[in-house]
Sequence to fold (78 residues):
Amino acid sequence: MNTKLTLRLDDKLIASAKRHSAESGKSVSQLVSDFFALIDAEDSDVDITPRVRSLRGVLAGSGLDESDYRRHLEEKYR
Fold:
């Protein structure tokens, strides 16, 4: 279930978030959601290896999304 959340942020920070949103192709809501998920993952009992941690964010700005990954899998397993 999705619930609306209101945030009060500095105007410059909002402008920066909107710019990043446009560049990444994700909504500001999705960016915030991804960030909260990251925090949750860091707080969980799951150990992330240093190698995996070093890969975090390497595809940022690449324009790839989940549909690209699904398309890749569909082609790979035909």
Summary: The CA atoms of residues 49 and 55 lie 10 Å apart.
